Amino acid sequence: MSEPATPLDPRTAQRLAWTRIALGDAAARLERASTDAGFRSYWRTHGAASSRIVMDSPPDKEDVRPWLRARDLLEAGGVRVPRVLARDVDAGFLLLEDLGGPTMAQVVDAANADAHIDGAITQLLILQSIALPEDTVVFGEALLQRDAGLFEDWYLRHHLGIELDCGDAERLQLTQRRLMDNALAQARVPTHRDYMPRNLMPVADGPAVLDFQDMVIGPIAYDPVSLLRDAFLSWPEARVDAWLRRYHARALAAGLPVPDIASFLRDADWLGVQRHLKILGIFARLHHRDGKSRYLADAPRFIGYLDAVVPRYRELDPLRDLLERTIKPAIARLPA
Known about the structure:
The protein has 336 residues and is an alpha+beta fold.
């Protein structure tokens, strides 16, 4: 006599039942495809029909409507995004086309990077050219202040155990103010805010763009530097510089409001510093608050980025002093 099946938890049972109805396949099965840093999860279908992806956004934790709104805007503007085949917004379930397994981050290497980056720039230029609704959130002072707080609250205080003295607090505040002023002075375009190889799928008519629900109107250099100074991949600085120049030339040709090349490279550097500080805070929060510790393994990459860029600019000397005198010694004291 066979063992009785283990009862499914309510959300798992609800997801499977919805999938079988959406597919018209009472025997369809689901297996985990991927998850993200939030509460969404992704499941690949197996059954009589071609595989599909079920996106599960528990409505009490992750409203699916912003994702759908951004997806529809991007698709209408010509950006390659996942196609939606069925939806239940109230329950938080979407049935999507299956774009395949590997993301760009999993297939890009030194030999094929130029082609992948060029394709990513093509999609980015389309995204940056879209006319967004007037009520789209602007990546302004409020969001920048929130990002700045993530670094101090979660990376310095929670992770490194640092309480800044008056001098160090002043150095950090001065640096953050200069970074924010630079971001606020840039021309504004549609901004993905996490445009990186992990969120790009290498399909024939793409790459397809993922994880776009936090799209805002923001500084034009933000997404290029997110792509090229990625949270999970590092490239030689000379190669990054060449790609930034390639983006700049193509953006000019597309009529996008980029400044002269010297100003753009500086803007990209400074936004890279702002973004790296923010992500250090996010990774520390994922570890300490959410129990998702794998992201912290990439924290040294951000310190490396800062070491490469910050010394180029006298205006960022307060951050260099803070790194050398306070942050790096605290990192060295962390348990191995």
